[in-house]
Amino acid sequence: MKTILSGIFAAAFALSASAAAQAQDKAPLKIGGILDMSSLYADITGPGSETAAKMAVEDFGGEVLGRKIQVLAADHQNKADLSANIARDMLDNQGVEMIYDVAASATALAAGEIAKARNKIIIFNGPGSIRLTNEACGPYTIHYVFDTYGQANVTGLAAVKSGLDSWYFLTADYAFGQDLEKDTSAVVTKTGGKVLGSVRHPLNTSDFSSFLLQAQASKAKVIGLANAGGDTVNAIKQAAEFGITKGGQKVSPLLAFVTDIDSIGLETAQGLLLAEAFYWDLNDDTRAFSKRFQERVKRPPTSAQAGVYSSVTHYLKAVKAAGTTDAATVMKVMKETPINDFFAKGGKIREDGRMIHDMYLFEVKKPSESKVRWDDYKLLATVPGSEAFQSLEQSRCPLVKK
């Protein structure tokens, strides 16, 4: 009798364990966005990036490997320590398998270290610092949309070649701004131009008057803005108010998005040269996605938000193909599989995590050239990814075999 009871209890325990395992298998697959929801990069990433991730999940069918897909999002408030804490909580306590976007460079560098220590995939869409694919690279990090090297290479090269060969920089004093100034300076000097100086400004500056006056006094042909978001918008507006552009100096935003140009207005922004990874009005595919996005967000997507949709979709396809969420297995599939969608044609994730794709050089239209709101850019050049981004030979990523 005792033996029979032991057998019954053993069978019951086995069934219970099996049921628990099946329930665990059917737990939601969670992906987490660490975003700027409320500060100077909120328009670039923020709620729009969360929406893009949710659209990707819906279009994928809402589940993979029999598991519902759940999109989480949290506000890092542009604080690196908060970003690290959010990443830690998502990965350790909430069961998140992949982190997307991370918005700014300092916050991305912090979250990247947490993901690296836990062998989890993290995809950077909004951050730009080249450090993310150099010293801070990891086996599970992907830099998807743009970086400071690509922005500098596309914009700086075009400007110097057109005769704009003396530069002065207004630089946001953190990782992204410093890298953008450094990378653009290298392009300017390599192409035969001169850097006459630079000044650092705090993040989220409202008054650029003293910085702009220093730039004006330098008599540089170009005032390069090594900043982003609200800082770029404020600097361009105030440069116009001070009559700097009317005085003959060009202002070059080294990272700007269509939302920034809309905030500035074409009257002030016309003629600006800028590099972008995506524009809503490039072709039928970009227009189709942007129309659906705009129905939800009431404006077109930025390149970062379009990149979120593309990268989340690429990740989910890889999970399905791999038959697992194991990071190493999924990452192998992601790197082996070309990316062909509205965001990139023939895109490829390299061993250092850099996603290689075409970049575009645009000129901001005059008000008379724009037909409707958001019709802001004229395409000047398409730059192949192999020319726009840092080569593997130049890479300082420890993963790259030389």
TrEMBL record:
One Pfam family it belongs to: Peripla_BP_6
Signal sequence region: 1-23
Domain Leucine-binding protein: residue ranges: 28-365
Swiss-Prot/TrEMBL keywords: Amino-acid transport, Signal, Transport
Superkingdom of this protein's organism: Bacteria
Keyword Signal: yes
SUPFAM superfamilies attached to this UniProt entry: Periplasmic binding protein-like I
Biological processes per GO annotation: amino acid transport
Name of the protein this chain belongs to: Amino acid/amide ABC transporter substrate-binding protein, HAAT family
